[in-house]
Amino acid sequence: MIEIPVLPVEKDNIDLQPDYFEVNINGKLLIFKFYWNPIDKYFSFDVYDNELNPIILGRKIVIGSDMLGRAYNDSLPNIYLVPLPLTRETQSSGITFDNFLEDVKIYILEKGGE
């Protein structure tokens, strides 16, 4: 069975403070911040390069949508970051606080043919 890498987000206390971490993907260091919006009930994120220059700020996380889509920056690796549901129920309900990282994982997928 092929194992697809997952972005290492931690949800513990994310309702109180953002989850902040660095990850090296294909030789490029990226810094992520993930937030929970308790009023509108959605997750969003920021991405910075290794010098803390912003690449993406405040983007909402949506099932099946490439989180790096429409971001053009030499600091980004040649990948897709796609939140995918593990159940049919999650596909229809969308991302919630309870199902994020349980029934929805953010997969790191290589772009082909580029």
Molecular structure report:
The chain is mainly beta. The protein has one domain (19-110). It is built from one helix and six strands. It has one helix at 88-93; strands at 19-25, 28-37, 42-48, 54-60, 79-85, 104-110. Strands 1-2-3-4 form a four-stranded antiparallel sheet, with no helix packed on it. The longest helix is centred in the C-terminal third of the chain and has 6 residues, at 88-93. The two termini are 25 Å apart.
Short description:
By secondary structure, this protein is mainly beta. Helix content is 5%, strand content 39%.
Residue share in β-strands: 35-45%
Number of domains: 1
Major β-sheet strand ordering: 1-2-3-4
Mean pLDDT, to the nearest integer, reads: 93
**Low-pLDDT residue intervals, each spanning 5 or more residues:** none
SSE class: mainly beta
Q: How many beta-strand runs?
A: 6
CA gyration radius, whole angstroms? 14 Å
The ordered H/E elements are: EEEEEHE
Major sheet size, sense and barrel closure: 4 strands, antiparallel
Q: What is the terminal separation in angstroms? A: 25 Å
Count, helices: 1
Give the % helix.
under 10%
Query: How would you describe the shape?
Result: globular
Can you give keywords for this protein?
mainly beta, two-stranded antiparallel ribbon
